[in-house]
Amino acid sequence: MPAPISQARTPTAAKSKSTPRKPDKGRFAQQAIEVPLWLQRLLTPLDDGHLPGNMCDKPGGFHSQFKQLLSTITQPSKHHTLEDSQYGSNSYHFLERYVQCIKELYNSELESVDFMNATEEVRQKINSWVERQTNGDITNFFPANSIDQSTSMVLLNTVSFQGKWKMPFNPKDTQRGVFWTCKDQSIYVDMMTQSGRFDIANISNPPMQIIKELTYEKLQEWMHSESMKNIATKIYLPKFRVEDESILKSILKSILNEINFISYGSKANLSGMSGNCDLFVSQIHHKACIEVNEAGTEAAAAIHATTVSLSVREFRINRSFIFITEDTKTKSVIFMARISLP
């Protein structure tokens, strides 16, 4: 299909505290938005804090390569913006080499704040930063009492994506259509339609049967299948705007271990940040919203009309689906969302 037109904004934050809390039970929602690259981006500075050496001294290492990847994806463009911020307690000492390293590698500043005596003011300050970076789409990122006096550090990462369809949908063709939310229940939604030639491939295994095994390799196989053929197709795609918010305590441990960064809870070693071993990650807070419509978030472009033969194939997205935004240069997944209720 053509490059997606969507608006997606997501801030993600990690908090370092002095006392662990029990993880929440597993969470499964009708709408789920994943931002794997940006979650890894958020956690990468923690790896600097995990290792005693200065990662800036290793130009051929993971961090310099990861910086290059992000630079390629977010090079000056009206479609992508990426911002970072870190807030550290003014009562806690952070090593200068760590501060300089994250600034050099990720253009991230560590701002000193008073979590102990001005907790609410700091919370509002952080929320205002998130609101500005997401152009007001995400407000009150940290709700009341979510930051307390024991907080030592907050790491923030926001990413915004605005894109246009390669071939926009004509709003005049949008019509009400049926969308099945489950086997025997349906709703009416605004269904965009467009006819043209698109790269289409049949997947032998329905994703709803192997969703738990949706690995990166499987995802790449689906998206870059050699069986894709350029076929005259009429597409039916629902307009949607979805939001997803989660405290990733329940999967934090597996995430950190999976990407070989740091240990979870009191076993963590972030001595590279301060020289001490009394910091650990207590929480990762994620919130995202994605909006997809006929033309995009910018001024509508000229509508592109395509004429196809009568023997056109239909691609009707009228039940749960996975929506993916990918950087075609690096084949990096920017956003991935599961949509069950447009």
Walkthrough of the structure:
The chain has a six-stranded mixed β-sheet, with helices on both faces. The protein has a four-stranded mixed β-sheet with strand order 6-7-8-11, with no helix packed on it. It has helices at residues 36-50, 62-73, 96-106, 119-133, 207-210, 216-223, 249-258, 271-274, and strands at 7-17, 32-34, 80-89, 110-113, 153-162, 175-182, 185-200, 229-238, 240-247, 280-292, 313-316, 321-327, 332-339. It has eight helices and 13 strands. The protein has two domains: 25-43 and 54-162 and 243-290, Antithrombin, subunit I, domain 2 (Antithrombin, Chain I, domain 2, 2-Layer Sandwich), CATH 3.30.497; 171-237 and 305-339, Alpha-1-antitrypsin, domain 1, CATH 2.30.39.10. The relative contact order is 0.25. The radius of gyration is 22 Å and the shape is elongated. 23% of the residues lie in helices and 33% in strands. It is an alpha+beta fold and 342 residues long. Strand 6 (175-182) and strand 7 (185-200) form a beta hairpin. The longest helix has 15 residues, at 36-50.
Short structural description:
With 342 residues, the chain is α+β, with helices and mostly antiparallel strands. 23% of the residues lie in helices and 33% in strands.
Compile the SSE list and pairings.
Blueprint: E1 7-17, E2 32-34, H1 36-50, H2 62-73, E3 80-89, H3 96-106, E4 110-113, H4 119-133, E5 153-162, E6 175-182, E7 185-200, H5 207-210, H6 216-223, E8 229-238, E9 240-247, H7 249-258, H8 271-274, E10 280-292, E11 313-316, E12 321-327, E13 332-339
Parallel strand pairs: 3-4, 8-11
Antiparallel strand pairs: 1-5, 1-10, 2-13, 3-5, 6-7, 7-8, 9-10, 12-13
Pfam families: Serpin
Protein name: Ovalbumin
Region (Disordered): 1-27
